[in-house]
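Appendix B. Worked example

We walk through a single record from start to finish. Start with the input: the chain for MBL fold metallo-hydrolase, Stanieria cyanosphaera, length 274.
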Amino acid sequence: MFTIDKQLTKNFNMYLTYFDSNSWLIEFENKRILLDPWLVDHLVFGNLPWLFKGKKNQSYPIPENIDLILLSQGLEDHAHPPTLKQLDRNIPVVASPNAAKVVKELGYTQITTLTHGEAFNLENRIEIKALPGSPIGPTLVENAYIIKGLETHQSIYYEPHGYHSKSLQELASIDVIITPIISLKLPLVGAVIKGQESALKACQWLQPQYILSTAAGGDVSFEGLLISLIDEEGSVEKFQSLLEEKNLSTQAINPQSGRTLELKLNRRQPIVNN
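Next comes the structure step. The output line below is what the pipeline stores for this chain.
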C-alpha cells in the first residue's frame, strides 16, 4: 500500500510515491500534494496515438485526502486531462499559467497561477515557489518548483525536463531533488529531456541529500513513431558514480512505480515500504 496515515508524518520524515512518468505523491508537514498526476488511461500527446502512446502496466487507486494538486506544465504528461477529470474539482490547484488553462477548462474551482518568482502558502505549512523551468517552444518557459516545509524546513526542488535555472546557485542547500537523471534524445533535435550533466550541475549547486530520477522511469509501455526515434543515455548507477567522482554525498535513487520512499533526512538510506 502507498497510502500513509497523516499521523505517521509527525516524525517529520518525508514520503514520496512515484506513479510513472512525472507523477508523484508528496507527503510531509502533514500535507499530501499530488504532483503532475497521470493515474488513469493512456498518455497521448495532441490526440496522436500513432506518434506517441504510453500505457501503464499496472494501475493504482487514486490517492485520497489530497490537499493540493501541483502542475508544472500544461502538456499532457504533466496536466493529464483524463486524470484531472477523475479528481475532485474542489481540490486546490497550483499551476503554471499554461497548466492553469487546462484545469480552468475542466471546471476546477480553486486555481492559483504562479509565474516565475511567485510563491503560494499552503495553510502555513508549506511554501511553493515557482522558478523558470523547461522551455516549450520558442517563447514559453514552464515552471520548476521549490517546495519547502515551514515547520521542518525540509525542501524539495522539482524540474521535470532537466532545465535548471542559474538562479538556483543563489539558493541554500535543498534536501531532495526530483529531476531527470537519464537523457532522452531525438535525431537532429538533441536532448528533449536533459539527464546526467544537467542533474550533476543541479547537485553541485544545491548539495541535496537525495536525488530521485523522474520522467524516464516507471512501469510503462510505450509505442508510436516517436518512440522508435528516442535514444536513452545514462543510468542511475552511472550517475551515482559521477556524484562520487565529484565528492558529492548525494544518493541517487531510481524510484519504483507505486512504492513509497520514506526519506529520513538525517540518515543516508531510504526505507522502501511495499
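Two observations about the output. The chain has one domain: 12-273. Residues 1-11, 267-271 have pLDDT under 50 and may be disordered.
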